[in-house]
């Protein structure tokens, strides 16, 4: 493992870069490796339109582009998580993960398809988490929260654990879900669908609600908004290719990993 210092220095040594960062930073990360001539994989939670914008940025620098979307937690065993891929070079990236715990699936040759899968999936998982937080806030404001929870226990038992899980996830990750809600809303609008729900959902995940914003359950989230670090990257050699996860401002230190 070698510290390569900067993203620019790392890009000169890598054949493949895998970008994994919060949605708001995708273009900044892509531009930080200007001049990279390998394959750049953006595996972030962004709209198809944003993915195509990133593709244009990296292509202008001389790289080929693969659209990606990750669903699942960091993989510990096969089947835990999937990396959806699309684009003309998607098959080459899928081959790099053959035999690993991460299930890399090529779903098409068009840039934006993999991102669309991620957006549709997150629209449900994170959108409903925000909805549950809003419902709890409403019940709390009307002083009927305990009655609501008791009714859920009787008629919707599967819901009883979700408010706690949603609140915990919002505490831990809400600061980076805000931009993801915006990307989902943009995806909905581009498809001619109402974007309003996910535009509103971001208010229930925002780490710093405005002074007049009635989102009382988010008071404890403020400290997460300052979780920002310096630009980072990891470069991993896999066979004849070198895979470099780029984590932008919120990832792991810039290093080069050589596997033998």
Can you describe this structure?
The protein contains eight helices and nine strands. Helix 5 crosses helix 7 (162-190). The model is unreliable at 208-242 and 248-260 (pLDDT under 50). It has a nine-stranded mixed sheet, with helices on both faces. Helix content is 41%, strand content 19%. The chain is elongated. The protein starts with a strand and ends with a strand. It has two domains: 2-110 and 231-257, Rossmann fold (3-Layer(aba) Sandwich), CATH 3.40.50.720; 116-226, Orthogonal Bundle (N-(1-d-carboxylethyl)-l-norvaline Dehydrogenase, domain 2). The protein is an alpha/beta fold and 260 residues long. Helix 2 links the parallel strand 2 (16-19) and strand 3 (39-42).
The total of helices stands at: 8
Rounded to the nearest angstrom, the distance between the terminal CA atoms is: 12 Å
- Percent helix range: 40-55%
Sequence of strands across the biggest β-sheet: 1-9-7-8-2-3-4-5-6
Shape designation: elongated
User: Unreliable stretches, pLDDT < 50, 5 or more residues?
Assistant: 208-242, 248-260
């Amino acid at each position: 493992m070698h510290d390569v210092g900067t993203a620019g220095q790392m890009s000169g040594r890598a054949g493949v870069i895998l970008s994994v960062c919060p949605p708001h930073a995708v273009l900044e990360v892509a531009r930080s490796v200007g001049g990279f001539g390998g394959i750049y994989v953006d595996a972030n939670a962004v709209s198809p339109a944003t993915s195509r914008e990133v593709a244009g940025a990296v292509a202008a620098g001389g790289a080929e582009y693969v659209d990606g979307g990750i669903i699942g937690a960091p993989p510990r065993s096969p089947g835990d998580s999937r990396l959806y891929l699309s684009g003309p070079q998607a098959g080459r990236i899928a081959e790099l993960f053959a035999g690993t715990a991460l299930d890399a699936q090529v779903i098409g040759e068009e840039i934006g398809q993999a991102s669309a899968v991620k957006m549709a999936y997150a629209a449900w998982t994170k959108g409903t988490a925000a909805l549950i937080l809003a419902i709890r806030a409403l019940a709390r404001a009307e002083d009927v929260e305990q009655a609501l929870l008791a009714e859920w226990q009787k008629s919707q038992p599967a819901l009883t654990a979700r408010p706690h899980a949603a609140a915990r996830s919002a505490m831990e990750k809400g600061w980076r879900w805000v931009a993801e809600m915006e990307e989902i809303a943009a995806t909905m609008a581009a498809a001619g669908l109402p974007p309003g729900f996910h535009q509103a959902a971001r208010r229930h995940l925002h780490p710093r609600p405005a002074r007049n914003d009635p989102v009382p359950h988010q008071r404890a989230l403020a400290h997460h908004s300052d979780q920002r670090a310096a630009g980072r990257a990891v470069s991993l050699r896999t066979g004849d290719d070198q895979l470099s996860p780029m984590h932008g401002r919120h990832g792991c230190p810039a290093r080069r990993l050589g596997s033998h």
